[in-house]
Amino acid sequence: MFDGVQLNDPGALTFGPQMVQAIRRFSSAVTSLKLDVHLVVDRPSRYIQALAKAGADRVILQLESLSGVDHDRLKEAVEQCQEVKRAGMRCGVCIAPSTPCSQVLELVSMGCVDVVNLLAVEPGFGGQKFQVSVKEKIQQLRSFIDEHRIPDLIMVDGGINTQTARLCLEAAGASSLVAGSFVFNHKLGVLQALEEIR
């Protein structure tokens, strides 16, 4: 969910809580689909209650969207995570390719998040090429959670296709993937794209 403010570009304007509600209403009739909402907006706390009411299962906060730096950003992230959980949803955190993995380790060790979404592309624009440098971040996070016996929580988002999926899962240790362009632009359709990734 991009507001075109946090990422100041008309291409980074997407849907809001009403679309989440519509997807929830449709999906409840046919499946037990889990709705993760990756929130890249100015002042994300404004959307938390609306997303809970709309039926989101988990909100993934973009760390760079939070104000402040270092300690202030960590404090705000903890507060936002607590707000998401009080609203009855699970909470995750997402970091851009340029943000070091170390900036989320305290949130992980505190149990504030149940997923860390490592972006392999710059946030906000579909169809970008996977940045291979994310492999090192996946490995760093994998080492940290294994060492501290933390439940599996590594998600990779951006540039996912059959080759990069294998790299993320087998070579680096990710546990879940987010694929957009490969799936929705596949010449043989969504189901074939998903099958190829699986």
Automatic annotation (TrEMBL):
GO molecular function: metal ion binding; racemase and epimerase activity, acting on carbohydrates and derivatives
GO BP, one annotated term: carbohydrate metabolic process
Record protein name field: Ribulose-phosphate 3-epimerase
Keyword ATP-binding: no
Domain of life the protein comes from: Eukaryota
Keyword Metal-binding: yes
Organism encoding this protein: Guillardia theta (strain CCMP2712) (Cryptophyte)
Keyword tags: Isomerase, Metal-binding
